[in-house]
Amino acid sequence: MRQNLPRAGARPRVEGSRARDWSEIQERMLVPLYEAVYARLGVGPGTRLLGLGCGSGLALLMAASRGAVVTGVDTGCAERLDLARERLLPRSGDTRPAVAARIVEGSPRDLRHTRVPAFGLVTVFEPVGCRAGDAEGLGELLAEAVPFAGRGAAVVLAGWGPPERCATTSVLRVAARLAEPLRGPRGWRPAHRDDLEEVAGRAGLRPDGSGRVACPFGYADVDSAVRGLLSTGLFDAAIGATDRAQVDKEVTEALHPHRRPDGTVWMPNVFRYLIARVP
Question: In the prediction, which pLDDT does 181 show?
Fold first, then answer.
């Protein structure tokens, strides 16, 4: 079935199938990042965590499995939030162990309508610095969220590592090249060394440590790789400037050097995280 594409320059709407591609293929690529952050900060019983841009909720589920009380907030794809609710919120007849979780569709401002004890940890696991203008938008989001965090609370920001340490960079450059005619605000760009520190500084947060984590992107085949990568939204501007078929074709070609003899796709990457504190 042909996908309905937006006019040139518009951001494509995320369909339910793409949300599934994210939750079933792509989201797990960042599991080593989530694990490293939670281990370093000792996330467990007694942790009250606020996840900004929580998406389909895998990072929240991992924190909840450690005993944390989690709240996820997202203004984006409703389909991803539905998947987060499926993962975290009990349904009638559900025999899974209950977790302490809340999912909010909206912004941190919407938490003001409920009695929420101060959070001790705020996470932003969507990588900063991969879209032009995303750092500024994150600054606004943090300004809304920080008032709900306690003094000394940790705020974790994540971003891509150096381009030369990230094999996926060569594929993401396709997004930048195809989106060039638009020169729009959503196009991909390489990460800058101080992206995370600059965002934390503008939000009035105090840096308190950082780290790097290997997060290889591995896929069963090229088709899964294309679907997973496009589910990130980093190719939306490219689709808007050209069309889905062109983007699929060029991403497939860019993946060729990363295809192994058994047909799987493997791209080593390094991600950074910054821990900052609420003054």
Answer: 63
